[in-house]
Amino acid sequence: MKQHYFQLLEAFEAYLRNQEASTDDKLQWVCDTLCERLPNYDWAGFYFHQKDKDELFLKVFCGEPTEHTHIPFGKGICGQVALSNETFLVPDVSLQDNYISCGITVKSEIVVPIFVNGKNIGQIDIDSHVKNAFDQDDVLLLEKLAVEVGRLF
Ligand code: SME
Questions:
Q1: Nearest CA owner, ligand 1 atom 5
Q2: From start to end of 11-153, where are the E strands?
Q3: pLDDT for 97-122, tens place per residue?
Q4: What is d(CA 150, CA 85) in angstroms, rounded to the nearest whole number?
Q5: Domains by residue range for the chain, with CATH
């Protein structure tokens, strides 16, 4: 993993484990930090599974507001990850059939599930304004971050 990704991960671990901020504040800080520190990260948000409903809701984000605050399981990249329980890296969103557009500026996306006791409870969603913005280092960074976020619940 790139050196500055390690540093970022350490910062996330330290903050998420030690600060006395609320969970929502911590999640917001994670979004803001991703968008500030990583140039290709133009939008970052946390979707969580709605209780007793096969739907995701957007809890916190940084970047442009989106109208897609509620997404049914199975719809779009996010909805597919809610069912597959697997990271979904999309190098070019224009090649995806089952995709929900948040604007023509978005060119690539990555969605990483968050687990608590083995159960998929939500996801980290990152959009970029450039194609092929994400690689295996981003998968690693975000999957490790997802583990830390899962510890909050
Ligand atoms: N593109 C996502 C929708 C959420 S936005 O990226 C914020 C999808 O296809 O599920």
A1: 102
A2: 43-49, 55-62, 70-72, 88-90, 108-116, 119-128
A3: 999 999 999 999 999 999 999 999 99
A4: 14
A5: 3-150 (3.30.450.40)
User: In this structure, are residues 133 and 39 in contact, taking their beta carbons and an 8 Å threshold?
Assistant: no
Average confidence score pLDDT of the chain: 97
Q: Fill in the amino acid letter for 122.
A: G
Q: What is the pTM of this model?
A: 0.97
The dihedral region occupied by 118, where left means phi > 0, alpha psi between -120 and 50, and beta the remainder, is left
Strands of 25-134, DSSP E: 43-49, 55-62, 70-72, 88-90, 108-116, 119-128
Residues within 6 Å of ligand 1 by CB: 43, 45, 66, 68, 71, 76-79, 99-100, 102, 109, 125, 127
- Whether residue 135 has pLDDT greater than 90: yes
Alpha-carbon 86 to chain mean position: 12
